[in-house]
Specification:
Layout: H1 2-17, H2 24-43, H3 48-51, H4 55-68, H5 75-92
Helix pairs in contact: 1-2, 1-5, 2-4, 4-5
Length: about 110
């Protein structure tokens, strides 16, 4: 869950931190998606199977938002696509989105 919170925070601040926040709708989109991902990560501690699965459709928007809302540099959609794939990978590696016959990894 901590990894998902950190990833959500990065999505929220990445536009500002990387300096490509010229496009106002895209900036607000990343902020909203980042906050949503943090909330999903925190709520998944309460009801895993319900909230953890919400990360996937949220990341679909993150993946396509740079293309839908427009972008001025390649860094904007590249960051969004990379973060969407990483967040989906983190969500899928969670115990509740795994196939029932596949055991959780031991650490």
């Amino acid at each position: 869950t901590l990894v998902n919170v950190v990833l959500g925070l990065w999505v929220a601040v990445s536009r500002f931190a990387l300096g490509f926040s010229q496009n106002e709708p895209d900036k607000r989109s990343n902020l909203a998606v980042g906050i949503a991902l943090v909330l999903v990560a925190l709520l998944s501690r309460w009801k895993d199977e319900v909230f953890e699965a919400l990360a996937v459709p949220i990341c679909f928007w993150l993946f396509f938002s740079g293309f839908v809302l427009g972008f001025r540099t390649f860094a904007c959609p590249a960051n969004n696509v990379l973060m969407a794939l990483v967040v989906i990978g983190a969500a899928v590696s969670g115990n509740n989105l795994r196939s029932p016959g596949v055991p959780a990894p031991t650490v």
